[in-house]
Design brief:
This protein is an alpha/beta fold and about 260 residues long. The protein has three domains: about 60 residues, no CATH class; about 60 residues, no CATH class; about 120 residues, no CATH class. About 45% of the residues lie in helices and about 15% in strands. The chain is built from eight helices and eight strands; from the N terminus they run βαββααααββαβββαα. The strands form two sheets. Strands 4-5-6-7-8 form a five-stranded mixed sheet, covered by helices on one side. Strands 2-1-3 form a three-stranded parallel sheet, with helices on one face. α1 crosses α2 and α3 runs antiparallel to α4. This is DNA metabolism protein. It comes from Pontibacter burrus. InterPro entries: DNA_repair_put (IPR023875), DUF4130 (IPR025404).
Length: about 260
Amino acid sequence: MYFYTYDGSFEGLLTVVFEAFERKAWPTAIAQEQVAQPVIFGETIVVVTDEEKAQRVWKGLGKRLSEAALHQLYHTYLWEQQGFEQIIFDYIKLAFNSAQTIEGNYTAPCVLQVQQAAKQVHREKHRMEAFVRFQKTTDELYYAHIEPDFNVLPLIIRHFTKRYADQRWAIYDTRRCYGAFYDLQSTQFITLDVAPRKGLGVLPESAVMEEEHTYKQLWQVYFDHVNIPERKNPKLHLRHIPKRYWKYLSEKQPRRLA
C-alpha cells in the first residue's frame, strides 16, 4: 500500500503521477500534505512538486487526449471533492495504458466521474459569472466576494478581465482565502493578511461608496416593479437561481432604511 502526499497544487498532483509511474508503485490514496493523516500500514511517499516532471506528464497526456478532455481533467482538480486526486490518477493511468482513446469509455468509473465532476464545475463557473456583483469602494476599486462550492476562481478570471477591462477590480474567495486582482494591466492572484469574513456585509459601510447604496436601492425598486405576483413560479425561480446564490444579488438583500 502506497500513500502519496503533495502540496495541493495541480503541478504537484501531476508530479505524483510521474513518481508513481517511475516507481511502479500505484497509490492507494493521495492527499494534500497539510491534511494528510499518518498511516499505520503501508508506505508514505512525500512528493515535492517538480515543474519539469509535471510538464512531461501533461505533454504526454496531450498526445492521448483531446483539448476538451484535458480541460475536464483540470476541472476535476478544481472540483476538490473527496477522492478527486485518486480519480484523476486513475484516469491518467488508464489513458497512458490504453492503445485507444478512453474519452468515451464510460464503463471505466474514473472516466464517468471526471465527466460528471467537470460538468458540475463548468455549471458553477457560469453561475459565478452571472451572479457576481461588484461594490465600488472608497478607493475606486470594484470589489466582490464569492463562496463557490468548487474552486472556480481560476476559470472566471478571463471573463471578468475582458468584461471590466477599463476598471480596477478584485474578486476574493472567502472560502479558500485567496483572490484575483486586476490593475488595468494584468490579473494576479492575491492573498490578504486579514481575509474578509464570509457571508453578507463583507465590506464595512465606511468602505463602500455612498452611490453604491443608491444604485442598490434603484435596482431593488426596479425589480419590485417588474415583478408580476400573478405569474410567480417559485420552483422555476429556484431552479434558475438557487438560494445559495441569493447573497450575491442586490434584489435579494434586505432593504436599507432611510
